[in-house]
């Protein structure tokens, strides 16, 4: 038995915490998962009875950056706080947490409740200064490692995007032909996409485009990603959001863009930190390559369409005011109930 272990440790549970960051790792990195499950044998060898050993593997497939969606980690922290856990077994510090906030909170509770921490290098008592210092440094390395990995991956993506070679899902109307983006060879798909631009040119309103599609009995395609329909086209009713998405996407003007959306962190209604995607202004797009591939409209048409969409908005503060005298006193105030134009 380890010199740091005592009878009161063996009288409580031994928790085996198992985690891999993505579903792909869970599926393909079988050796890592097997090594983590084998920690139960280490707990048995140290004196814990099989009924005292608890396997916490509900966080498989979840990142350790945050505790938000890791229910088993929350359960572990709660049980440690109540003094029900004698030891925590984990392959390495990064399995438990890649956030210093979560890591040091767990260590603080372990020190108070005299809970041991086992990893691949040995046994640690967080209540001991030296052991707590080593565990703290390991937690720092775990968080730093995540930053370094992300920086490398993002740098590689940006370098490839600057050459116009980074592949990502293309909008409806385009497909990949080898490494090149080309128009979808399906003439029905091309016709539906061209109809959106032609009707917007005539009607000057996204709502009117939707109405005309419905009046003409037309359908609009979307490409499914994932599941049984992965990669297949699904035809359905055109919606206003789809029209806006098509008109505002520079890809339809033959422009390759990287960085239109960026991830940012926010605090949700429950107080948890979460990530969301945010649309960036054009001057902050990381990569813009005009005439990268064939398009449905020209660059000038794209800019004109986008300006027309902005002018059509009725929820902005800079609406043109009405005339103060003379005829047409309702100019700028009266809105059309069909198209929304002033």
From TrEMBL:
PROSITE patterns linked: RECOMBINASE_DNA_BIND, RECOMBINASES_3
Limits of the Resolvase/invertase-type recombinase catalytic domain: 13-164
GO molecular function annotation: DNA binding; DNA strand exchange activity
InterPro entries associated with the record: DNA_bind_recomb_sf (IPR038109), DNA_bind_recombinase_dom (IPR011109), Resolv_N (IPR006119), Resolvase-like_N_sf (IPR036162), SSR_resolvase (IPR050639)
Pfam family, one: Resolvase
Domain Recombinase: 171-315
Stated name of the protein: Recombinase family protein
Species classification: Bacteria, Pseudomonadati, Acidobacteriota, Terriglobia, Candidatus Acidiferrales
């Amino acid at each position: 038995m380890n010199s740091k272990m005592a009878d009161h440790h063996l009288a409580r549970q031994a928790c085996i915490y198992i985690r891999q960051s993505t579903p792909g790792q869970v599926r393909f990195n079988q050796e890592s998962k097997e090594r983590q499950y084998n920690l139960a044998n280490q707990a048995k060898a140290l004196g814990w009875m099989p009924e005292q050993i608890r396997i916490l593997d509900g966080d498989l497939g979840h990142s350790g950056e945050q505790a938000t969606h890791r229910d088993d980690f929350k359960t572990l922290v709660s049980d440690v706080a109540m003094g029900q856990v004698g030891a925590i077994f984990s392959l390495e510090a990064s399995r438990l947490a890649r956030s210093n906030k979560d890591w040091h909170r767990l260590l603080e509770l372990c020190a108070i409740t005299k809970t041991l921490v086992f990893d691949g290098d040995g046994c640690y008592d967080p209540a001991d200064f030296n052991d707590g210092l080593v565990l703290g440094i390991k937690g720092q390395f775990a968080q730093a490692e995540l930053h370094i990995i992300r920086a490398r991956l993002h740098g590689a993506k940006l370098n490839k995007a600057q050459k116009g070679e980074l592949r990502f899902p293309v909008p409806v109307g385009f497909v990949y032909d080898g490494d090149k983006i080309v128009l979808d060879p399906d003439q029905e798909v091309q016709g539906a996409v061209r109809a959106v631009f032609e009707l917007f040119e005539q009607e000057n309103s996204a709502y009117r485009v939707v109405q005309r599609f419905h009046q003409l009995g037309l359908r609009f395609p979307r490409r499914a990603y994932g599941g049984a329909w992965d990669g297949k086209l699904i035809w359905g009713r055109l919606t206003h959001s789809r029209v806006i998405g098509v008109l505002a996407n520079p890809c339809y003007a033959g422009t390759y863009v990287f960085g239109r959306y960026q991830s940012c962190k926010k605090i949700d209604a429950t107080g948890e930190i979460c990530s969301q995607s945010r649309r960036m202004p054009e001057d902050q797009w990381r990569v813009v390559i005009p005439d990268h591939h064939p398009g449905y409209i020209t660059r000038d048409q794209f800019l004109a369409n986008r300006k027309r969409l902005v002018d059509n908005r009725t929820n902005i503060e800079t609406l043109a005011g009405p005339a103060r005298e003379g005829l047409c006193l309702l100019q700028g105030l009266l809105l059309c109930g069909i198209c929304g134009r002033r």
